[in-house]
Amino acid sequence: MATSKLSQFGLQHVARGIGRLTPEVIESGSGSHVTMVGGKRYLDFTMGIGVANLGHCHPKVTKAIQSQVGQLLHGQVNIAFQKPYLELVEQLIPIMPHKSLDTFFFWNSGSEAVEAAVKLARHATKKQNIIVMQGSYHGRTMGTMAMTRSKTVYGQGFGPLMPGVFSVPFPYCAQCSVAQASGGKYSSSNCCMDPIRQLEVLLKQETAPSDTAAIVIEPVLGEGGYVPAAPGYLERVREICDKNGILLVADEVQSGFGRTGKMFAIEHWGVRPDILVMAKGIANGMPLSGIVARKDLMDTQMPGSMGGTYGGNAVACAAGVAVAKAFKEERILENVNARGQELSDMLSKLRSDPKTADIIHDVRGLGLMQAIEFKSGAAGSIGSKVQAKCKELGMLILTTSIYDTLRFIPALNITKEDMAKGCQILKEAIEEVAAGQKPQETATRGQALE
Question: Which Pfam families match (predicted)?
Fold first, then answer.
C-alpha cells in the first residue's frame, strides 16, 4: 500500500482520540533514527516518549527478545514463577534508589503501575485519599485520569472520575506567582517553598492526615513541562509524610531508568520513596511496568489481590534484563551526563543570545530530560513553530505542558555526533522562528496557555 493510502487508512480506521505528531507511517528504527514508509529518515528526539531509552532496536535487547520468544512467550504470573521475571528482579534490586525497595510487582503500562501503587497505599494504610501535584501526569485510565493534572484534555468529558484525589502546587519556579510578584525573578536554587505551605494547608483544610494514604509525585514533572523539583522540596515532603503516616510514592515512569543522569531521578535529592513506580525505559519498548516497595508493605496484600493476564510478560522481562545489563556494560549513565551537558550548554547559549533571548522564558532539566519554555503572545505557540521547523530539517521533537514548551528526549546512548546534529537543527529552527517574530508578539513571560 502506498504511503498516502496507508496514512489515509489510519486516519479513517484508528481512534480519533489518539493525537500524533505526524500522519506519516514509521517503517523501521535504528539507534537514534527512524525511517518512514517512503524513505524519509529522521533524527528522533522523542524515543517513543522516553520508551526506547537505549535507541531503537538495541542489538542486545533485540537478541534477548528473540531468544526468549523461542523458550517461553507467556508465563502467567498467577500460575507460577517464570525465570525472566525473577532474573529482572535480581537485576533491579541493586540499582534501586534505597535498599528498602526490594519487593516487586510487574504490570504492563505506566497507568496500571500507578494504579497498583494506589491500591497498595490504600490497602496498607487503610486510608483512602491521594494527594498529587498540579502539572502532574499519571495516566489515562479511569483511576489515573483523576490523578493527572497536566492538561484537562486527559479527563475532559470522562467523569465522574475516581474520588478522593486532591492536588497542590509543584515548585515550578518559572511559573511561580510568588516569584513573578517579586519582579519576575525566579530561581529553583532559591525556592520560596510556598508549595510546602500549600501542602500543609491542604492537610489542615481538605484532607486530614488520618484520611490521606499517599502523596504521589514525579521528581521531575513530565507532561507538566520537564520541571525538576526545587532543592529542598522533596526532603520537606518526606518529612511531612513521616510526621503524618503518609506514604511517599515516586512516579518515575518517565524520569526513571537513566533519563536524568541517575538511574532514578529521586536520587538527585537523596530522598527515600515508600513506593517507586516504573515503566517506559524499563524494557526499551516492550510493554512492561512495575512498582517496588519494602517487603513488609507489599506483604500486607492478600494473595490474589494483585495480578493480571499479561503482567510481567516473559518476553518483556527478558528485554528488561538485557536493558539492565546494557546500562552497566555500555556505561550509559556516563553518556547521559556528557551528552546532557552538551544539550544544556547549547540551550543556555540560546537563552542568552540576543537573536533568540527575546522568545525564551526558561531552560531547565536534568541529564537527557530537558526542556525550553518560550514566551508566548498573539502569534500563538512558538514551540509548535520550532517543532515544525525541526521536522522540516529532519528531526522529530515534542511539545508538552499547558505552557509553550519543547521537551528533548533523545536516546540515552545517543552519539556525540548525533547530539551535535540535533543541537544544530534545534538552534537553526529557533533562530529562524525568532527572526520571524515581531517585537509586539512576544510577551514578557511565558503565560499563554495552550
Answer: Aminotran_3
What cell was used for 349? 547559549
pLDDT tens track for 412-441: 999 999 999 999 999 999 999 999 885 544
Domain around 376: 3-57+331-441
Bridge partners, 26 (sequence order) = 36
**Cβ 278 vs Cβ 257: under 8 Å:** yes
Q: Grid coordinates in use for 283?
A: 524494557
C-beta neighbour count of 277 within 10 angstroms: 28
Cell of 126: 487503610
Domain stops at, among 266, 296, 329:
329
281-283-289 Cα angle (round to 5): 80
Structure letter (DSSP) for residue 220: E
Task: Say which CATH number the domain at 425 has.
Answer: 3.90.1150.10
- Where do runs of H (alpha helix) occur along 148-260? 177-181, 194-205, 233-244
Determine contact, residues 353/346, Cβ cutoff 8 Å: no
- In angstroms, what CA-CA distances link 353 with 79, 431, 434? 61, 10, 11
Per-residue pLDDT reduced to its tens digit, 58-89: 999 999 999 999 999 999 999 999 999 999 99
Strand partners, 247: 214
